[in-house]
């Protein structure tokens, strides 16, 4: 069997997902292709129709379509329905089925990087309120953290995420300025927006002067790997969590959905880190 996988988003040509999924295919000695469909909003329906015609086995969804994709799938996995965003679509028995692996991929990255951390005792701040934030917010709620707040430029958008919370966990929406002033309250801070992504590397969504010493500060941006946000975090006494871990682990979960197999993602992440540094990969 030869698989056809892909990614739809805008912009999307910069994505490292093709390299990662080709590593997965190689690891399992499977034949397949993962390609990028960079699709402007006015081209979305045409691209999706073309993907249906091609009978793409599965595809990932990135900005700005993670929430929009709910309108186009035939069925939604209960977890993705709760999140309210889709980043993975499976073609099965003539239907498109929507899933979300973002949050679970992020939490796995956190646990692999900092195995000493007890998730149940954490106070978490999520910066941003888009599709990725929804997935990460839901994953933290499911892990039973002590508290998880959401900061966004538009507080009303952050408020909309709170409807996901039916776990009885303390959670509030706040402005970026308020969150910046209260950073010392949080054990984990997760930056989920595209601010600081190459080529606008110098941009930073908030200052980390008030960060708690030893707090884990994460950025889901992976290009550059060491964003201005993470550089500031280290300077202020935080412990950085880079975006490449979430990228690889959420991709692994997608691949496992598409192929009904289990992948060894840790090796691929190690190779990806070498690739980002410009090292040779054997």
From TrEMBL:
Shikimate binds at residues 15-17, 62, 87, 102, 222, 250. Belongs to the shikimate dehydrogenase family. GO terms for cellular component: cytosol. GO terms for biological process: amino acid biosynthetic process; aromatic amino acid family biosynthetic process; chorismate biosynthetic process; shikimate metabolic process. GO terms for molecular function: NADP binding; shikimate 3-dehydrogenase (NADP+) activity. Gene3D superfamilies: Leucine Dehydrogenase, chain A, domain 1, NAD(P)-binding Rossmann-like Domain. It catalyses: shikimate + NADP(+) = 3-dehydroshikimate + NADPH + H(+). It comes from Pontibacillus litoralis JSM 072002. Involved in the biosynthesis of the chorismate, which leads to the biosynthesis of aromatic amino acids. Catalyzes the reversible NADPH linked reduction of 3-dehydroshikimate (DHSA) to yield shikimate (SA). It holds the Pfam family SDH_C. NADP(+) binds at residues 128-132, 152-157, 220, 243. Residues 118-220 form the Quinate/shikimate 5-dehydrogenase/glutamyl-tRNA reductase domain. This is Shikimate dehydrogenase (NADP(+)). HAMAP family: Shikimate_DH_AroE. Its EC number is 1.1.1.25. Pathway: Metabolic intermediate biosynthesis; chorismate biosynthesis; chorismate from D-erythrose 4-phosphate and phosphoenolpyruvate: step 4/7. Residues 7-89 form the Shikimate dehydrogenase substrate binding N-terminal domain. It is an enzyme of class 1 (oxidoreductase). The lineage of its organism: Bacteria, Bacillati, Bacillota, Bacilli, Bacillales. Homodimer. InterPro entries: Aminoacid_DH-like_N_sf, NAD(P)-bd_dom_sf, SDH_C, Shikimate_DH, Shikimate_DH-bd_N, Shikimate_DH_fam, Shikm_DH/Glu-tRNA_Rdtase. CDD domains: NAD_bind_Shikimate_DH. Residues 245-269 form the SDH C-terminal domain.
